[in-house]
């Protein structure tokens, strides 16, 4: 089996051993990438959450032969107006950054516009007015650069606004598509996204509750993608999905940070190899062989993010 983890925050300091500004174990980023490769996760798309982070993860993508996104997460949109030169300068620099990578002389490792969208669960980071103001312009980068969208959709009202704004900017069949990652909404909300032609990304946060499992079971196989959102969104013993963990399958053997051992993962920190676990859980929920789920997710991801290879 082979996998693409479509959402990895590989630039997070946890992969360098730093937690909340405190070093708790040695840098093991290279080992994390190596474990993923050995587990069959041959491709990773690294998430750019703002201009700075987009630049950081592009460099990591170059170093480790991966891909990345470029954009501005809804909770980061306050930085657009605080940027030196304001909104126009921010978008000028973001567009120049993407254009340079997509040029003949560029690495062409940026394969998506994201992370962009709306998040009304964490308005303390960015008020909805700020998120709504900048979303249309961020979405239109997808059309401008012919790159699929990597979307964030958190909260029922945010979902309604996202669907509305996608319509207002003309999102449709002449766009390069996209995925709503880490989906935690309802079946009707999921069906709205499918009607727009979007794909649905599933990770540990998408599988917390019994209601989440109903949604995961309802996603058409030809529209599902798999992800970890590492180092976040681990599957824990309190999640409804925990009962569907494959017996005897330990993708990453883990120890506590203070007992760090080279070659092992870290408890409380998700990593890209564990997208294999997500595939097993989704397969169990649906009563399907894991190979069938893995193959469908791979083909869907290749079609959207790597159309030249699909």
From TrEMBL:
Keyword annotations from UniProtKB, A to Z: Hydrolase, Metal-binding, Nuclease
Residues annotated as binding a divalent metal cation 2: 152, 181
Keyword Ion transport appears in the UniProt entry: no
GO MF, any single term: metal ion binding
Assigned protein family: Belongs to the metallo-dependent hydrolases superfamily. TatD-type hydrolase family.
Gene3D superfamilies according to UniProt: Metal-dependent hydrolases (3.20.20.140)
GO CC terms in record: cytosol
Residues annotated as binding a divalent metal cation 1: 115, 229
Protein name per Swiss-Prot or TrEMBL: TatD DNase
